[in-house]
Design brief:
Blueprint lengths: L15 H8 L9 E3 L6 E7 L6 E4 L4 E7 L2 E7 L2 E7 L4 E4 L4 E5 L6 E7 L7 E6 L6 E7 L4 H13 L20 H9 L2
Antiparallel strand pairs: 1-2, 2-9, 3-10, 4-7, 4-9, 5-6, 5-8, 10-11
Length: 191
């Protein structure tokens, strides 16, 4: 009797440029990202541009960014104000846990490798939308994240498909434009 085959304790190396080429169709809108490995302690994702967002991610853990092609930036909400972290081609950046951030990838064909920790049961990610005019929190969705590729679009759609009343800022009455990132950024820049 032979013993059952056990799964390897490691994955085989992969050729990263070839992987990028094979997944290029997923690294642009509307998907924009693809997870490299499944069921590991790290969530290793490649994200492509163009992609501009209106949400801010509240990750309970650190995130590692390597902007290996093109340029991008993170819009960061820190201590009651926006700031910007530029990610130029070749840059790496380690984002602290729970720092609200909104990745902005306006360049077509840009690529970033993002590494996060797999979330154990009970570690909750938040997605927040702020008023472009007065910077008040408009809405927050908490998610027990199982799959970045599958769970994020569902969370976004819960807000984007909500009524205008649900997207109205309680502080100043401005309606958040939902998924219209260009409108949100234009409103914010006008302040």
């Amino acid at each position: 009797m032979t013993a059952p085959a056990l799964p390897p304790r490691y994955t085989l190396p992969l050729n990263f440029p070839r992987w990028i080429e094979e997944h290029a169709h997923l690294l642009k809108p509307p998907v924009g990202n693809q997870q490299v490995w499944q069921d590991t302690d790290f969530i290793v994702t490649v994200v492509g541009g163009p992609n501009e967002r209106t949400d801010f991610h509240d990750d309970p853990y650190e995130e590692f960014f390597w902007q290996f092609k093109g340029n991008a930036h993170l819009l960061v909400w820190d201590r009651g104000q926006y700031s910007r972290v530029d990610l130029m081609e070749g840059d790496i950046f380690l984002l602290p846990p729970n720092m609200r951030h909104s990745p902005q990838r306006p360049e077509a064909g840009s690529r970033c490798l993002v590494i996060e920790r797999t979330r154990p049961q009970g570690a909750i990610d938040g997605f927040e939308w702020y008023c472009a005019k007065c910077a008040s929190l408009v809405h927050r969705i908490d998610v027990q994240l199982a799959s970045i590729v599958d769970d994020l679009p569902k969370a976004y759609n819960r807000f984007y498909e909500s009524s205008e009343a649900a997207r109205r800022c309680a502080s100043c009455g401005t309606v958040h434009p939902g998924r219209d990132a260009k409108a949100w950024h234009a409103m914010r820049s006008a302040q």
